[in-house]
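Design review, sub-item: ligand-bound model
Attendees: FS, YL, KQ
YL presented the inputs for the inosinic acid complex:
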Amino acid sequence: MTRRLDGAKLVLASHNPGKAREIAALLAPFGAEIVSAAALRLAEPEETGDSFEANAALKARAAAHTAGLPALADDSGLVVPALAGQPGIYSARWTGPTKDFAIAMRRVEDELKGKIDRSAHFVAVLALAWPDGDLKTFRGEVHGRLVWPPRGERGFGYDPMFVPDGYEETFGEMDPDLKHAISHRAAAFKRLVAACFR
Ligand code: IMP
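KQ shared the predicted structure:
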């Protein structure tokens, strides 16, 4: 049984401004008071886990322990079956030192050359940790296909090369409200909300 969060102060342990924005928008209707990791000057732990769940858990636990408040962390990435699941948990690291997603998208495209299967899915795992060590994780996925060249200036990360199933636009072209409604993070969120806010 997951503990409920109504009216609680919650630390958002994400240092990625794109993700923090999406998570804050998704949490807005539930009245939880959000404190950002940046405002608390929380350090960003190294993502040493071997799964989305493990990485989300270590970020949430570190923030909850330091802040003495429940903390929510997210780990996410793009999974490409034709690339044996890569970039997966290494999605952010595929940008290289310049953190430029044009480079990461180009690498995905280069490695896909000659492959017929262009399916892909985004995975998001939300981990909710309490200062006493209690922890729950919630996983969401959105399936689709990869296109080239990248299209659209909205969103972040690999959005311009990902077209979700049932749509023709990339996440980079899509109205952010629609992306928020159908995204992997939204799916994980629905699970979190069902467990913690209702
Ligand atoms: P992390 O969860 O901070 O380790 O990094 C996840 C990485 O996955 C991001 O930096 C992006 O590269 C990618 N990613 C996760 N969610 C999305 C999304 O909604 N759109 C595009 N890229 C995403």
